[in-house]
Every structure is written in C-alpha cells, then in structure tokens.
Amino acid sequence: MSEEMYKKLAQAVIDGEADDAEALARQALDQGLDPLACITNGLTKGIQQVGELFASGEYYLPELIISADTMKVAMDILEPALAGGQEREVVGRVVIGTVEGDLHEIGKTLVGTMLSANGFQVTDIGVDKTAAEFIEAVKENNATIVGASALLTTTMLQQKKIIEALDEAGLKNQVKVMVGGAPVTQSYADQIGADGYAEDAISAVDIAYRLADAPA
Fold first, then answer.
1. Do 102 and 134 touch, CB atoms closer than 8 A?
2. DSSP state of 80
3. Where in this chain does the record put each B12-binding N-terminal domain (predicted)?
4. Which long-range contacts (CB under 8 A, 24 or more apart) does 59-64 make?
5. Percent helix, strand, coil in the chain (nearest 5)?
6. Which of 83, 108, 122, 155 is such that its CA lies 20 to 30 A from the CA of 189?
7. Taking the domains of the chain in order of start, what are their residue ranges?
C-alpha cells in the first residue's frame, strides 16, 4: 500500500496536480504512513523526475513552477506531521534571496523549492535584501551556502557587495556563495569571486551539492 501511495504522490508532482497532491498527502496520514517516507520516496522522487524532464527539454519553466508549487502543497501537510525527533537529512543550510533593488521573485523561489526538495534546509529571506540582511540571516541560520539572485543588470553589483560583506564579517571561509539571474554569467561570477553560478533551478541543485561537499 505504501509503495502505491509513494508512486501516486510522485505522479501528482510530475503532473502538477496540486489538488491531488493535497488529497493524497492527507490520505497518507490517515492511513498511518510515515510522512518522512512519503516525502523522500514520493514527493522528492517526483520533483527529481520533473528536473530530468526539464533538463531534457520535455518540460519548460511553467511546468517546473507548477510541479514545484504542487510539491509545496503536499509538503505543507506532511512536514508538520513529522514525529518529534524525526527530521529529514540535511545536506546543507542555504540562505537565499533577491538582492537589494530587485523585486523579482519567481526564479529565486523556484530555486529554493528545488533545493528544499533535494535535502537542503532553505531560508528564503525574500526580495530587495541588502548585504547586511544576508549576513544577518547567515548568522541566524548558521548557513553554509548563500544564494543571491539578481534579475536586473543594475542590481548585479549587489551580489559582489554580499561577497565583500561576508569577507568583512569573517564568514567567507565558512560560507559558499552561488549567484544567478538572467544577466549573470559564469565569467561575472568568477570576476566577483562567487563559488558557483547557476543558470536555472536544476543546475542550482547540482551546484549546491558540489558546494556542500567542498571544504570550507
């Protein structure tokens, strides 16, 4: 019964059927299934398959967003049901946000959802955030990775300011910085001293895994 439920949860995510995902999550809890297993063996496998479909060109950004939102609906039901001492294995702790002067949210939110789905503990601080606010969030959450998004050419310099602020705060050796956004390139990331550059939410997961394994 549990394997069948895992498959249904995964398929709901793949199909982007939020109502089905919500109903299945509630049904799983009613049946006494382990919520952590439902997340790991159902939702996560579903979103990973969505990532593969996106990478192969079968899915596009709208499908990716819908599937990520679908997973979040089910997660909102299953996560509160986790037993007291039961926690998902944390790959790394990420603080993610859109830089000061930039109000774009979709890409940043999607990256956060995909990272969370793949085992990262994600703190999304929102949009239009100063370097000081990034630093504060890193300290509060003992973050190991910072994700800074900039969707405007005029705000790209804020990513550099965040890296400089981490250095000034004595945190650069314990925190890896990944940057992204439409105008951002690998050469720009190299130029400002970022540890990683991701052009989309799928590659962001791969980069985050690499940074999580990298020595501080």
1. no
2. G
3. 1-90
4. 63/16, 64/110, 64/201, 64/202
5. 55, 15, 30
6. 122
7. 2-81, 93-213
A 10 A CB-CB count for 74 gives 27
Six-digit token pair at 192?
């400002």
Tell me what pLDDT residue 216 has. Answer: 45
Residue 80's CB is within 10 A of a number of other CB atoms, namely: 9
What's the number of CA atoms in the CB half-sphere (13 Å) around residue 11? 8
When the candidates are 1.10.3720.10, 2.60.120.10, 1.10.1240.10, 1.10.20.10, the CATH number that belongs to 2-81 is: 1.10.1240.10
CA-to-CA separations, 196 to 47, 69, 130, 177, in angstroms, rounded: 23, 26, 20, 6
Tens of pLDDT, residue by residue over 169-198, are 999 899 999 999 999 999 999 999 999 999
Distance from C-alpha of 208 to C-alpha of 216, rounded to nearest angstrom: 13
> pTM of the prediction?
0.80
Nearest by Cα to 46 from 91, 6, 101: 6
With bands split at pLDDT 50, 70 and 90, how would you rate the model's confidence at 99?
very high
CATH number assigned to the domain covering 93-213: 3.40.50.280
What is the distance between the alpha carbons of residues 74 and 89, in angstroms, rounded to a whole number?
18
Which one, of 211, 125, 207, 147, lies nearest residue 174 by Cα?
A: 211
What Rg, from alpha-carbon coordinates, does the chain have? 18
